[in-house]
Amino acid sequence: MLRIEGLTKAFDDLVAVDKVSFEVPKGQMVGIIGRSGAGKSTLLRMINRLTDATSGRILCDDVFDGEVDVCGLKGRRVREWRARCAMVFQQFNLIPRLQVMTNVLMGRISYHATLPALLMMFPAKDRALTIRALQRLDMVSHAMHRADELSGGQQQRVAIARALVQEPKILLADEPIASLDLRNATIVMDALRRINKEDGITVICNLHLLQTAKDYCDRIIAMRKGAIVFDGPPSELSDALAREIYGSDKGGDDDVELAFTATSAPTDFARSATRSGAD
Amino acid sequence: MNIREPTALAGAKERGSAAQFEERYLAFRRRKLIYNALFWGGFIACVIAAGITAKFDVFTLLKGLPRTTEFLVKMVPPITLSTFAADIGEWYWGIDKWLNSLLNTLLMAYLATVLGTIVGGALSFLAARNLAPNFLTYWAMRRTLEIARTVPDIVWALLFVMAFGIGPLPGVLAITVHTIGAQGKLFAEVNENVSPLPLDGIRAAGGNWLHEIRYGVIPQVMPNYMSYTFWRIELNVRSATIVGFVGAGGIGHDLFTSIQLLYFADAGAILLIVVVTIMLIDMLSEKFRHSAIGKASFSH
After folding, report:
1. A23 part of a folded domain
2. Which of A33, A125, B154, B264 is 20 to 30 Å from B81 by CA-CA measure?
3. Is residue B248 one of the residues assigned to a domain?
4. Is A22 helix (H, G, I), strand (E, B) or coil?
């Protein structure tokens, strides 16, 4: 269970996330939607502790003993939390000049003392985990390639493999398919959904497209101007409400058409997964 | 600026706006001309002022010019074709000693480059605005590197010769200190240009600052580091020669002694050795530098 209470992030003259509260039961797949600038990325970065919250609490009970406020963690405990609450980025954030294998091993970095990790002395068990993660994402044949030799979709799969070897309880994905074409977007979303189903890992995914969220997620949270404006199953999100979420602040609706266009073709797998997840 | 040509068919309104544009454009040109005149006027005034202060006099220059060749001529002993080998042999009577000194100089340069690059490289992360743990560290590190760099290596050499006595050790130390300052600053500038994305990726996976540097920064900056280091070897061979003048050993010491004792032929022979060596190193390091930037394959 992940509990967010009154989480707020204020920059100098802008409140990016405004007293957001919600609970995510273990194993749920949540899609967070909203226009760009709605605060989705900041919210996710706060949960992973890449960004410090201005106020509010993030409570989690399945990483440390008992329920812990993640915002209060320091030093080594923050790094442990980050490992257990893995993150996948829009731009993949791999190390371009290093091999795929090394990139995935980075996911094990917090489990060892600093010095051996600096010298890249990872135990055989870690390499086995790495290969298995790459296998699940169908990327083993690329293990010895440099990350910058891969296509965007392949890089994102490597990034997901890195997240997997962190042995996370929660997987955060910040616009994981925004830089990908339709086919790769489908592969990546299928992979996230499969990890969610098979491993019971909670997935919280920022998506700018409503249709993708409806196709893949058990639950949709919609944000506008830093606040939650909808929270519920995809079936309850009406078109009228969606228009309001995506409607521009000035009254135009350029973004609405964009948001309604499905750029990810849901596979049968995604459909069945959503259906079984909804009942 | 997007300039639209007025056409013959344009109506009164367009003609009006074209005239208005023309007027503004001319005003802009006039302003630019004035700024340019001011800039170049100032530039030329500075050159003249500098020349006067440095007592740069064309007549003195013309009068002294033949004497420089006179000195160069003295540095080469008479060599005739019939006794060519013997003449060269006599000119390079001290070749064994000089080559030994040259080796000393090269080793000084090499050791100082390695030590200076390692220390300067390590400090460069603290001197990079985007990587330094806080502003104070960044600021202090920048100033430290500036001191190491801006004090000329010959001054460092004098200082160390007084402390440790004559020999290669003060030379190595002097060049090392200068190299720390130079490499630290150059590397820090490279560090400031890295993409932050891989660093975020490593931090999000639970890595600490050292992990971010090791895996996020170093792979990105390695080709540039290599390139700067090869260049630094060239510079340091020159420096190692110069610091020999103040007692830091090597070929510079031999050169300085022969000039002091007015053995100009010896000085010429040594100078030629140094020039040829530096040319060879230039050529080699350029080759390495290009392959370091070109292939840039240091992946693990």
Report:
1. yes
2. B264
3. yes
4. strand
